Every structure is written in C-alpha cells, then in structure tokens.
Here is the input.
Amino acid sequence: MAALLRSARLLKFSPSGLLQITGTKRNGPPLGRLYSGAVGGRRTGVRSHQICPVSQHASSRLWPYAPGCVRNYVVATEQKDEGNLSVRSKQMQQFDWALTKLDFSVRRTGRVTKTLLLRIFHDVSRTGYPSGNQALLLLRSCGALLPELPLEERTQLAHRVWEKLQELGAQYDVSHYNALLKVYLQNEFKFSPTDFLAKMEAANVQPNRVTYQRLIAAYCYNGDIGGASTILGFMKTKDLPITEAVFSSLVTGHARAGDIESAENILPMMRAAGIEPSPDTYVSLLSAYAEKGDMEHLKQTLEAADSADCSLMDRDVMQVIFTLAKAGHQQHVPEMIERLRHERGYIPDAMNLCLSLITQGQEDTAFTILKTFPMQHSENFNDTAVNMGNFFLRHCISMNTSLEKIAYYCKELQESNLHASPLSFTLFCALEAKKTETSLELMKLLKEQNLPVRSHYFWPLLTQSLKESNTAAVMEVMKGMQELHVSPDVETLSKYILPVFPSIEAARQALKSADISLDSERFLNSEIRSVAANNLAELYTLLSNPSFPSLDLSVFRSSLILGFKKSTDVESMVKVTELLHKDVRFSKESSNPADAASFFLYNLISSMSEEQVQEQEDKLRSFLNQLHAQNVTISVNIFRGIRNLLESYHAPELIKDVFILVDHKDQMSNGSASASGTAHVIGIEGKLVALESKLAELKAENKPLSVILKHLIQTLSAEENLQRALELKQQHEDEMTIGGYATLINLCCRHNNMEEALNLKREMSRKDSSVALDAGKYIALVKILSLNDKVEEAVDILKEMKEKEVVINDTYTTTVFHMLNAVAAKSGVSAVRRLQDTIFTLGLAKPNSNLCSPVVTAYLDSKDMPGALEAALECQKRYNQMPRIHDVIVGLVEKGDTDLLQKAMDFVSQERGEMTMLYDLFFAFLQTGRYREARKIIETPGLRAKPGRLQWYSEKCIFNNQMEALEQMVDITAKLFECDRDEMYTYILRLCKNTNDWQKAEAMWTKMQEENVIPRERTLRLLADILKSNSQEVPFEVPETWYAQAAPTRDERDVEYQPRLITLCKKGKTKEAYGMLKEVDKKGVALSPLSYDHLLRSLLAEGSIEDAMVVKDIAQSRVPGFKLSDSANNLLIITHSKKGQIKDALEMLRSMLQLGHLPTHLAITRLVQALGNHGDVAGIQEVETLIKGLGTNPNLSSMVFINNTALAHIKNGDLESAVELLEGIYTRPDGTGSSMSFVFRKILEADNDKALDKMSAMAERLANHFACYRPVSDLFLQLLDMDKVEDAKFMLARCNAVAEQKEMLLSFVAQKAQSPGQVGKIKNLLSLIPDFTEKEVLYPYIMKCHVMDKDLPSAKALHEQMQKEGIVVDELSLKRLAVLYRKTGEMVPFPEPPESFKFYADKLKERAAKAQATAEE
Here is the structure.
C-alpha cells in the first residue's frame, strides 16, 4: 500500500487513453447504482456517476474542516473497554432489533428515515459499548438510503457517527472504511483518494479489492483516468480480479474526461475480457449521455441493450431520469417516463426518485413522476378516499419549497382526484415542522377556499414558544389568529397563551395592547383556571361576588385541585369549598351543588399521592374539621371512596375526620403427597429367562398363561427372535391373545415372511373377526404383500382397514409414504398407482405431496419423463398436489424437451400462478448449470423474493454440497426485490463451514462489502468461526454471545449458605431466608451477588420493600460495586407502583434508564397504571417520553399511555380532557382498532356514573358519526363481563352495529374460554346476539368452558346437540371431552383421538391459517 501511496501522490491529474486490460473473468455480482437506496433500496455497489465534479485541488481536502490531514478519522481503536457485560449483552439484542427495523425499511421502501437512524444512533451512543457491526450499520445508512436529506447533511451525519463511535471505543476494520467510501461516493463528497489511503495506512488497516474499486470510482467521477489507472495497475500487481464495477466506473471516467468514444469502447473491451455487460454498465453509459442531453445516442444505447437481451428495469430508467433532471435537461424526462413499465416495486422506487429530486430542487420533475403513480396504490389502503402524494407534500415542506408551487401542486392533486384534502395535509406537515410563517400562509389559503381554521391548529406553533417563555412569538401567532378571524378557545388561552406571561395582569396588558378582546367568556374561564391554581384568596373574592356569572365547576376543577394541593391557606380552602357546596352558580342546572362539592373532595384526595397525603395530614385534618364546622356534608358513597383511598395511602387516622362530614341520615349504616417408585431393570436375557420360568410355573399350576405368553412374545419380538416366538405360539395356541397375534404378524412382516403373516392373520380372524390391527401393522402387511407381487391381496387389506374404521393418522402418513416408495422401487408404476388410488378412494389418508410422489418417482427412476410429467399433472387435477415437479422440470431441461417443458410451465402457471412457475424454472436452470437462463428469469419485471422458496433451494444445495449452484443463486438474486441479502450469504457460509472452505468464506465477506450488505451478528459469528477454525485472522470485531461471557467468580465462603438460602426462597420461605441472611451477616460472611439478588427479588415479589432495602444495604457493604439486577429493579418499580409510591417508582425507572437497563413491559405498565390511578398526567407523559427515547421497542402499546392518561383526567374530574384525548385517537385514520376496554372497566369498577355517561356518549357518537365501532363494542363487552346484562342489552338497542363486530365478539368468547366459570357470560352474549358466528366455531369454545368447569352433564348435552345438528366435532374437543369422561370415572363412549392436545391445537391453527390465506387470495 505504501508503494501505491507514493505513486498516487506523484500522479499528475491528466486523462490518459483507453486502458488496455487483459482478459479477466467476472467476479461477484454487479454493483448497485446511485439509487441503491433512493429508488431501489437494495442496489449496493458503487456507481462512478454518483459524484459531482470536483476541483483539481480536491486532493488537498479529505474533510471539509480539516484540509489535507487525516486526523479525526485516522486511528482505529485498539483498546477495548471492559464495560458492563450485561449492558453489552443487552445492546447485542437491541442491535438485532435495529437491524431488523432498518432492513425492513430498506427492503420495503428502499430508504430509511432520519428519525429512525438517529434513534438507533442515540441508543448505541447511550449504552456506550458500540460493536463494530453496529458502527457498520449506522455508517452504511448515511448515504443514498437517506434521499430526504441534502447530500452535505448526509455526509455530516456520517462524520458525526464515525467520530462518536470511535470515541466510545468502536474498532474499525476495512469494512468500515469501505462503507465510509461508499457514503462519500453516494453523497458526492469531495475527498482525496490518496489522503484516504494514507488514513487507512496510519490506522494500520489494509485496503482490499472493494477499497480499490471504490477509489477508482472516485477518480473516474472526476474524469481522472490517470488516478484510476494507477490504482488499477496496483490491483493487477496484487492479482486482484477486475470486476464489472471497475469497467462501469471507467465508462463514467472517460465520459467525464470528455472522451465519450473511449467510454463507448469499454463495452466491447468487457466482452473481450469475458464479461458480458449487465444493466449496470449500460446505465453508466446512458447516464453519461443523459448528462450531455444526447438523446440520440441515449436511444441507440437503449436499443443496443434490448438487442443484447439486457433488460433494463424501472429503477434503471429512473436513474437516467434523475441524471437528466439534475443536468438541466428536464425537457427529455417525459420521453423516458414513457419507458417505465410499472413493475412490482414501482411505487417505492418512484417515491424515492421523487424525494431525491425534491432534495435536489427538482420539484416539478418529481411532480411529473408522482402523477404516473397508479391510483390503486394509495399510501394508506384503509382510506376511503385516495390520498396520494402525502410523502411529496411533506418533503416539499421540509425542503422549504415556495408556497406558490405547493399551492399549485395541491390544486392539481385535488382536481385530479389524487388527494381528498391536500391543502389540509400540507398545513398539518407545516405545523408538525413548526414552520410558523408557512403555516399561517397555508391557513390563509384554507380560508380562501372556505375551509375551516380552528383554534387548535395553532397549538403546535405555540408549544415551542411556551417552553421558551417567548412572549413575542406567542403574540406573533395571536396576531396571525386575529388576521384569520380565529378566536382562541379556553384551552388555547389557559394552556398555551396565558402561562407564557409572568402574571395574569401582564397577560391582560399584552393582549389588550394587541387589540385582543378580554371580555369574552373564554378569557374569563381561562383567567379563573389560572387564579384557581395560584391564589385561592383572590379566587374566593372573585367567585363570591354576586355579579360573577354562573360557571360550572368542571371548567376549573383540575386547576382548583392543583391550587388546593399547593396552598397552605386552609381558611381560603374552606371558604371556596363552602361556596361550591351552597352556591348553585357552580353546578349544572340538573345537579345539586352539594354533590358537586363532595365529588370535588373525592377528586382532591384521589389526585394526591401517598407521600402527599402523609406530608399534608395536619393540613387536611384542619381543613376537614373546619368544613364540618361550616356544615359541609358529603354522601356515604363519597365517604366510602375517600376511605378506600386513605386506607391505600396508609393514612387511616384521617378516616374519622372524613366520617364526621357524612350526612347524619347516612351515618347509621356503617358498618400430593406424591409417591414415587423405582423400576427394577434387568438385561433382556434375564428378562426372557424370568418370563419363561414364570410361564412354566403357571402351566404346572394349570393357571392362565395368556398375559405372560403375550409379554414373552413381545420380548422375543424386540429381540427379533421369530423362530422361538413361532414355537411358543405353536405350543400354547389356545392361550394366544389378540395382542400376541398382532405382535407376531408384525414380526413376520419385518422378516419378509409373507405366508406366515397371512396364516397368523387368518387365525386371529377366526378367533375374533371383529378385532382390528393398528394402522402400523396393517401397513406392514400391505407392504409385504405388494413387494411379493400380491397387490390385490394388499388392496383387500386396505379395504378391511376401511371396514374396521382404522384411520391412518398423521403419525402413520410417513409410514405409508415409505411403503409406497418401496413398492415403486420394487414393483413399478402400476402397483404403486393401484395402492395409491385405493388409499385415496377409501379415504384412509388425505392426499398430500409426499403420498402422491411415489408414482412420479417410479417414472423418474425409469427415465420416463413424459410419464412423470403426466403423473404430476394428474395428481394436481385429482388431488390438488404437484409432487416432485422440480425434479420433473429438471429432467425436462436436461433432456432438452422444449415442448414438454412448455406444457409443464403452462400448467404450473395456470394452477399455481406465474410467480410459482418462474421460481420452478429458475431452480431447474440453476440445478442444470444454465445460469444465464436463470438470470433472465430473475430479471423478469415484477418478480419479487419468496423467502420460503429461496430457503428451500438453499437447504437443498447445502444438503447436497452444491456450492456452485448456491453461489450462482446468491449472485443472480442480488437485485431481486425484497431479497434478504444477509440471509442469502448466510446459506453460502453454512456450506463453507460444512466443507471447511475458509477461502470461499473470506471471498464471500468481500462480496458482502461490495454489495453493502449489513450482516447480522449471527452471520459474523459464523464467518469468524470458519476463519478461526482454520487459524486465519478475523478481519472484524466478533460479537460476543451472552453464554460466552465470563461468569463471576464464586466466593468460597458462600458455599455453605447459598444453596440453603436459595432453596428457602424457592420454597416461599422468604422471611426465614431473610433471618438467615442477617445471622450470616453478623458472622461477617460475604455471600455471592447471586445470593443477595435472589433474596432481594423474593422479598420484592412479596411486597416487602423495607426488608429488601436492608438486604441491598448489606449486599453493598459486603460486595463492592453491587448493583440490583434488572429483575430486581423491575420488581422494585412494580412494588412501589402497587403501594402507590409513584415518586419512588418513577425515580427507579429514571435510574434504570441512566444505567442503560431496559425496564420490562410489566414494570412500565404497572407504573403507568399507578400514575393514572393518582391522576398524574405529567408523570405518564414523562414515562412515555423516556420510553420513546430508548431507541428500542419494549413491545408496549401506545394505548397503555393513552388509556391511563384518560383515567388520570377522569380521576382529576376533567372528563372533557379525557373525552378529547380518546376522540382524537379514534378519529385518526390509524386509531380505529385501538382498545379502551381498560378505561371502561376501571370506570365501571369505580361506579363512576358521571364518567360512564360521558364516555358512553362519546362511544356512541364515534359509532354514529365516524363509523368507529371499537369503543362502543368495548363498552358492550365490559358490561357483559361484569354481568350487567340489562345495561348491555340497552346499549345494543341504541347501537345495533355492535352485533356486526364479529371478530371482537368472537375474541371475547375465546378470552372467556381461557378461565373456568365463564360459560354464563358466553351464554349471555348468545342471548343478546344469537347468530354472531357459526356454530362450528362457537361450540368448541363452549365445550372448552364445560371441560374447564368439570361439568360433564353439560358437556355431554352439548356433544349430543352437535351430533343432532350435524356439526362435525373437532378432534381437540373430542380429546377434551374424553379426558373429562376419564377424570369423572366414566367410560369414553367414542374412540379417543390418540395424539396430544398440542397436536390437535396446532392442527386447528394450521387449518385456520390456510383458510385465511385462501380467503385473502
């Protein structure tokens, strides 16, 4: 490399002539193009035309802020921080999540979002232990996969990632430098290739073939053929293969140097070198013409590609369109658009092209592309109206496109019926982006179109100003509201405007100076809310004034509760409460003011935490006693609610002070062994001797021999001793049992003794003609008869199986398959066809691919390809199975019979679809070495990856050790839509491991870098294992697995105590274990961290926080650096939450996150529920923000936060906010499926009629006005679940649409069937909605309920009813019923299904999945 650096530094920047390259062969898949992320999502190689021209002095600046130097990115870190292993292990798990998210995004849309990328980057940085693979993932995502970001910003992000991860200790190898090179090329970043090589040399990182290829691309983009020649010469001296990527770069290099003739000559040179130009090379040449606007040569090149049978896909044409637009030749774009074929995957590719064009300032061209989108591919398939172009409008806002253009685009979209409300959506995007000026101008446009502009539209603009206390910005927004004639409502004033001012008076003055009216009812309500929260004395003065207008308490209840909790002015608290208790102005017309005041007191106590109640106990006692003195009373129901709260807060002393407020009229009514045995096992010889002795003994005593005889024959059968078994049968024929005969028949079949087997069968039938053998023994008889040319006798045996109802279940299906295969090999087609037809005709087994295949196998073995094809086609026609079609097609391809092959393909296409046919043909070409034809198949427009099919063929190659076919498949599928490239390379690496071919594995690692594949950690570990086992250096950091990490050394002093302590904990004797620990601690003995942690978790599980904290203190004093495990931390959060200690729980969550630990789903849920119970809205919002900032998905539904926030509002008496929150969710397009059952359940449990009325009204409104039936269905089912049948009936009468929500109703039935005692609820549902689902679906659930309730009479009755109604009872229900019969000591009156419960459950799931798939098709 040093030699190369020297020669490169001396190089003069002058174009040279056409490079003369000796013959090379294609090595690896073609590299991807510019729109690897932007239009395709999976293009992975470097294209030379990705970089704009740079100045002649480009070599003087590798980094924009560090000219000519290589610091900042120079030295790869050699030290590895030995951090917390558990944190590192968790991060490895998180990486899989991150990779999956990014991989899914790239394969589906061809891009990643900046938000997702930064989220992952933040998570990696926060944990502080970045792996090399994580660094690779982040770096590779900073290029063309971010079409929404300007090129310069993408490069800055890449530098930021590089610096930060290097600072955190990430180890960089050649793959990281190659990834950075790729990003530079995609982002058109000006850098010096020589400085880049120097940087690698300083870091002691050796470049590889991919590095040189990308440096050549960088030189060629600048038109510097001389620089490219130097690196190319160095590659030749190192005997590195010259791939198609290099030739494609040279096409661009010559074109950029002004030598278009030499660029054209590269293609014949490639052919001379044995490399056929692919679409990549043609696109390089097309782009060169596009840059010059040379449409004549561009068309000629397109024709040349077509004549060379090189099919250009839509994404190839899109790249040429992008080049034309960027070069200023937009007039030629429509002509290229006509060449788009709208293949599968067109939409994401075209979206990425539009985004890139907008980013480059080519909005008009992007809009032209947008209008080519097919109507049926709207971005949201759930929308009733098509809303196409959301992404386009959003990105126009992000890139500050002029308002005139945006207005034009919106008008065009609406007039073309491509978008229902483009202007409204654009305003939403502008508000989301906090673009005040643009938002106000868009609102004016809405006004001009007579569309409504509402007060809450301005909230996003006010939020940031509120955080910054920026009064000027708020006044600017207010001025905009005035110009639009929009008056701020109460919520806008109280939440977003007034709080920004230091006082109410200051707000009045500011608003007055801006000519904003202060006399409205809205301003009054907002003012009262503010005063109530801050000055109770002033509030009383205002409210007690007789001239003060009527104002419902619900308007300012939340603020008043906040004021009461903050205030120490008990006198004012009493005055305000007394006023609310007596004055009708502050309650609704239909309600009693005393009730409203009582409910306010309940809300006050409910909103307080346990700590607040205990801290303010004296204040509350004084407050309650003074209320009593003023004759303020509460109802007994309110007292009960407050009493329950105080008991949960461990403040029972206050209960008597609350009780004195209860009205005197209401005060009068308060008041296995299990046993185990051991089996004595002896050798088989000893067992035989013992049995024969026992047999002789019984015979001498003239006692029955049948049982011992059967056991003896079975033992001889296990020893394969047929002769002795037959002798015993001959000697004791009168004592032979049916079981003995069955064993002997099977033994004769195994020994191919057909005559004796038939004789035994006849003797058994003479003894008892009704007795049937089991399926396995019948199949053995059929096999031996068929193999001895007794096919008709074998058919008779099959008929007997049918007569005696012997079923061939799934266990014996494989046995039948092997039997038919054996017959096919020995007796030919006619025999196996006769048996197969009989089995299927009699219904002994259901046709499947395996059972149908022996007939085809017979033809294939005899090389009769026409017969094999006809047999396969006949099976499809008769049984809907196509056995061994791959082998048939392979045989036809090898034979070259094009007519039969065409017939086969036509049939497969007709029966299974064109996609299946293409894959069958693709695999056949691979299997026969016809790789060119296989490539043509994959280039078929619209073809997409089928992971199951690709895996099938890969596993076949691995099993048969077919490396060439597998490697070709991986190469050919490089551009296949939605193909998981990491998975494909993993298949090759698995075969490399099997064959111990480390050279091939290393070559695959290089090709993965060429393709820009982001490997999963399992792939890296597999590759590292191959290299290490062959004593080769691993060129990357190997991810650790949790089981490979070192376990802590055990303290020897712990040996005596740890087993006892852990045993006590496991047995639930936690207190005893706690006592033992304290005794051990007194002796000065230090236990292992595991011992302390085990006891801690046991104590926390019982809710003993105080004792657990004592154990923690002991552990920290004995074990330096002791910290609670994740399990203990989670239990601590749960325990605090259950006890209402939400401050401690919240603090625990914060500390966990700071340490890089992830809370469990349960811990988060319990904390959020506790916050909801305490009415702590802010706390819930904080938890939600913390969890969203994790950078990983804890599998937590957003409805956990929404439902508990609603409950918090309800606790605080703020029903309006709760309704507004939930309505906002359900009126969103993506919110109609969210469940609020939890909210309804809590309201019903609390008997909160007021909240129930409000929420049920909301649910009905959503159903009637928005056709959103989830809330009303949730309420209906909750009423049923709580046995409020009449209320449910009334709800159903008001909203009949509930009866149509069949999936929800069936889900309710399935849920109830999981627990005993729930059958009544299912029957209540049936009484209200009798026909909500089919009886075949419903009855198994009711049967399950009866079995769980151990109610045999009801289960019998249901079984009889199903039989009378002609409903087939599924095997799982029969199995359950049979077990119930046995448990109650009764005989089972039907054949019990022999398999396990799981077997039949899985079978039903599979059947349901197939039915759903069929329905979807």
Remarks:
- Residues 201 and 1107 are 59 Å apart (CA to CA).
